[in-house]
Design a protein that fits this description.
It is built from 4 helices and no strands. By secondary structure, the chain is mostly helical. The longest helix is centred in the middle third of the chain and has 54 residues, at about 40-90. The protein is rod-shaped and about 120 Å long.
Length: about 140
Amino acid sequence: MRIPKRVNTVLDWAEAHLGALAIVVGLALVAAATLTLPPAVGFPIAALIVGLAVGGFVDNLRMSKRVARQRAEIDDLLRQNGALRHRNTVLSSGVITRESQTTQALLMIPEDDGPLNIEPDPGRTQKLPELEELLEEERGER
């Protein structure tokens, strides 16, 4: 037998909210049982119980929408976090070498053992040659 789409949608919704529906049905039965009491006592108690059932069910529906939205956001954040971890793992594993990791913000400075030739001494500060001295050295070498 084929189930119509509307009926299938209602059954799926009821399956998703089974706990809340069970509580509402239970409270409705308790409210019906209180109607057997004298009307001065039974009606107010039944109304209170029905109000609790309806209010609790509406609150459950409202909160379930929020929870679904938060779960979707958490899933998206976890997916992004996993992608970032994967990228960092690939970068740190050496698949991409350091020489190929260049950015537009940083220019590559070629290694040049030109005329500076200063030997580092950790004990003192050394003076860098002036531009004029460098130019004189270049003219003298040519």
